[in-house]
Design goal:
- By secondary structure, this protein is mainly α.
- Helix content is about 65%, strand content about 5%.
- It has six helices and two strands.
- It has helices at about 35, 50-55, 60-85, 90-115, 115-145, 150-155, and strands at about 5, 25-30.
- The chain has a two-stranded antiparallel ribbon with strand order 1-2.
- Helix 3 (about 60-85) runs antiparallel to helix 4.
- The relative contact order is 0.08.
Length: about 160
Amino acid sequence: MAAVFRLTSVFRKGVPPLYFQSALLARPLVVPRKQREQTYLLTARIHASQTLNASSGSQAASLHWTAERVLSILLLAMGPVAYFHPGPAIDYSLAAALTLHGHWGLGQVLTDYVHGDTKVKVANTGLFLLSTVTFAGLCYFNYNDVGICKAIALLWSK
């Protein structure tokens, strides 16, 4: 059994460490014989997307995660802007942002629940087709009808 050594226990009370502020930070002191021969780390790494982790490293996964959060915040900000200043630029921005948000969300569901090479390829193709049709439909609605902003305002007015 491995002994766990907390770095914060080294420091005396009243003298906080400079770089290791977390009490949860722990390092293994002793590794059992069975695990000495293995080359992998003892800590588990959890990634949301297997495809990003397998080929391009953690920087791409980190950038994707950041882009998802930025898009979510932008969608929150677009609501009041669309209400107070409706127009074609906001309509098409909403069409793009909503489609991308849905595409990324359904992509994560597919990553979690679809397994097998052929099934993953078929599911991803279906997702790209669905996202393309969704964006084209929203653009068609914006161009040939009242637009997303006015349509939502009409729904709220009745």
